[in-house]
Specification:
A hairpin with a 2-residue loop joins strand 2 (105-108) and strand 3. The chain is mainly alpha-helical. It is elongated. Strands 1-3-2 form a 3-stranded antiparallel sheet. Helices cover 56% and strands 11% of the residues. The longest helix has 18 residues, at 24-41. The protein has one domain.
Length: 117
Amino acid sequence: MKTTLTTTQAANILSDDENSSFSRTGAYALIEYLEELEEDCGEEIEFDHVAIRCDYSEYASLRDFADEYFGTNADWKAEMEIDSDLEDSEIDEKIREYIQDRGQLIEFDSGIIVSSF
């Protein structure tokens, strides 16, 4: 037996999960990403909101990810070999590249989603 969910239904299940930290906007962006992945692969993905919340995390910004993942500004700058004299946009690009080299990065208007790595 199989139930097909709409994008909105899947996003609502994910954002309504009390153990999840996804905003409605973030959950919708993640579900849209997974739907695109389905189309690209030609295979349906079984919706498992528990696995999704374990595999992906939402952050308000690239720097929020870096702060939470590494602990301190100095730690993530050292790990990513970021010079203090870089422009903000260059720092963001370095963080973006770091994530993309290790996992998936989904950017949307009010934040980012990062896959576990």
